[in-house]
Design a protein that fits this description.
Radius of gyration: 20 Å
Order of helices and strands: HEHHEHEHEEHEEEHHHEEHEEEH
Number of helices: 11
Helix content: 25-40%
Distance between the termini: 28 Å
Structural class: alpha/beta
Strand order of the largest sheet: 2-8-7-6-5-3-4
Oligomer: single chain
Length: about 350
């Protein structure tokens, strides 16, 4: 049983048809032809092992982000790298926000780490505040932040992020920032700590091709850090050949296709407020998200089951620490799909 959205296989096993899936925050667009063709061409390489160091992909990522290739480690999706980080670092103490992506805490506790939670409040839109700074002490080994946060879709004020980074550096705390949804923000450059990598050895950034590039099924993520020893330890803390030849080829092609990413960003910018307004009109409390998904509260009993009976999947967020029953997350999809979702929601409510 999965703790995440996107469980289309269980849905199809129950209902016999594919769902209208709002539970997974991935691109609603078809895979660009150039990316699909690159993956197909890589099928000729399946008779040999893929490059374990992902040299060509790291070279492409190096040029894309303007950082040395030696600062990049690729993995089997961001989740793979989260677990590798926990295994390589083996922190004694860590801090995560609540709510946030569950795999941070899952990976940390696997290695016996004591994890504390910094609670986010609905009253301020689940934003991180300066109250988190006193929680960063020399006893804290690792802090995980998700920017924008999942499932709230909120970003942290840039000045506060820099204060957090400075505080972590002063305390000897590693700051791991998950920027997997950064490319889907209206202004990605305003919300990334990429430019801080050169100044801070205690900063690690996670990225993935899953959401913005539509490669969830191929599993491709990467982490950025100037700490060569940490990246080497992460590489050793999991099995070799983590990234298939198909995923490496698709990633290279995806980085060359900026137009599809721009089109996706335009779609989200247009459809997110429309979807939020539609949910609000139906009596839902909607968190002012900034990414390609919206967190909302609706107290009607068994809402996911009632929507599933009409062919729609949403993410039940009751298993997120800091939330509970009645909280749900819906992805921002195409205009037609969002309209169909709101229509079915109205019928159910």
């Amino acid at each position: 049983m999965t703790d995440h959205g996107g469980d289309w296989a269980s849905f199809e096993g129950t209902y016999g048809v594919p769902p209208l899936d709002f539970s997974a925050n991935v691109s609603p667009f078809e895979l660009p032809a150039a990316v699909r063709n690159a993956a197909k061409a890589a099928l000729t390489e399946t008779g040999r092992y893929p490059d374990p160091q992902c040299r060509a992909l790291r070279k492409k990522l190096s040029a894309y982000h303007g950082i040395p290739a030696a600062w990049i480690l690729c993995g089997n999706g961001a989740a793979d790298l989260i677990y590798r980080l926990a295994g390589a670092r083996r922190p004694r103490t860590a801090l995560v926000t609540a709510p946030t992506f569950s795999e941070y805490e899952n990976a940390l506790t696997l290695w016996g780490c004591r994890v504390s939670r910094f609670s986010l409040n609905e009253a301020n839109g689940f934003s991180i505040t300066e109250d988190i700074l006193p929680a960063i002490t020399p006893e804290l080994d690792l802090l995980f932040l998700c920017e924008p946060n999942n499932p709230t879709g909120r970003t942290t004020d840039r000045l506060l992020l820099e204060q957090i980074l400075d505080r972590c550096a002063a305390c000897g705390t590693l700051l791991a920032v998950d920027e997997c949804f950064n490319d889907l923000l209206d202004d990605p450059a305003a919300h990334t700590l990429l430019e801080s990598l050169q100044r801070y050895e205690n900063l690690l950034i996670l990225r993935a091709f899953t959401k913005s590039r539509g490669l969830a099924g191929l599993r491709l993520g990467y982490t950025l850090s100037q700490d060569a020893a940490l990246l080497e330890a992460m590489a050793r803390s999991g099995p070799p050949w983590a990234v298939s030849a198909l995923a490496q080829a698709a990633g290279i092609a995806a980085l060359e296709d900026q137009e599809s990413l721009k089109a996706l960003r335009r779609l989200i910018r247009r459809e997110r407020p429309r979807l939020a307004a539609g949910l609000s009109a139906l009596g839902c409390r909607v968190c002012p998200g900034e990414a390609n998904y919206l967190l909302f509260f609706q107290g009607i009993p068994a809402l996911p089951q009632k929507l599933a009976q009409r062919g729609v999947l949403i993410r039940d967020c009751s298993n997120y620490h800091g939330l509970g029953h009645g909280w749900y997350r819906a992805a921002v999809r195409t205009e037609a799909e969002n309209g169909e979702f709101l229509k079915i929601m109205k019928e159910v409510l």
